[in-house]
Amino acid sequence: MNTISQAAGRSLRSSSSGGFLRSLANGAYALFERLEHRSAVKTLNELDDRALRDIGITRSQIEDAVYGQVKAELTRYL
């Protein structure tokens, strides 16, 4: 009986540490994605209105375009 309880304890510990590592990786990915989006918004905000018009967006549509909330009027350019 002692062997069975030890095996069960080991499997619980390994699954909980796997869950922690998965959560940590997901958090790191979310942070990286957020930083990447912020950088894209900053870069697009530095463009002049003519350059933004050339790529098919207005200044008010920058964040929607970066965060994937593409409006119907933008889809004709994509």
Description:
The chain is elongated. It starts with a helix and ends with a helix. By secondary structure, the protein is an all-alpha fold. The chain contains 4 helices and no strands.
List the topology elements:
Elements: H1 2-46, H2 49-55, H3 62-66, H4 72-75
Question: In summary, what is this structure?
Answer:
The chain is 78% helix and 0% strand. The protein is built from four helices and no strands. The chain is elongated.
Features:
mainly alpha; 78 residues; elongated
Query: What is the first-to-last residue Cα distance?
Result: 64 Å
The count of helical stretches stands at: 4
Helix amount = over 70%
Average of per-residue pLDDT values: 81
Could you tell me the number of beta strands?
0
